[in-house]
Amino acid sequence: MGSPFHSRSISSMAFLWATFLFLTLSTSSVVNADDTPTVYEVLQEYDFPIGLLPKGVTSYEFDNSTGKFTVHLNSTCSFKVDSYELKYKTTIKGVLAKDKLSKLSGIQVKVLILWLSITEVIRDDDELEFSVGIASANFAVSNFDECPSCGCGFDCKDVNLRKIRPNNPFSSF
């Protein structure tokens, strides 16, 4: 039989050890979370607005040396903005460079009755040019200052969705 003092010491030491481990693990995950930029911050580093991606990104991979990226959403995402219907698959891939997103896959726009893949986005000053290969449309960068929500786009509180107008209607989808 041990003395009451001895068992309290072991209990106290175990408590202190558990507290130390908890604080160490908690602190290290907070530091790692702060060191890794969000995918939205990565977009901004390459001069793109955060609104190119909807809310609901669960993870991403990005290779700084090649610019190749993969973004994962929690589910497929679609919404309508003005006369455009957009659809994001659960996995979006491409190559990111300063002012240019290329080799995109996983994002589509509905044009008339056809779903066309958006293959490239180029930033030129205050405009974004979206290309579907055979056609392109330009929009003001400011249209994408906020992230759209799946199902309702940019304005989920109001039935009337915010209008995004092409800057150049002659080359519009």
UniProtKB/TrEMBL annotation:
SUPFAM superfamilies: At5g01610-like (SSF141562). Residues 1-33 form the signal peptide. Keywords: Signal. It holds the Pfam family DUF538. It comes from the Eukaryota. The keyword Signal applies. This is DUF538 family protein. The lineage of its organism: Eukaryota, Viridiplantae, Streptophyta, Embryophyta, Tracheophyta.
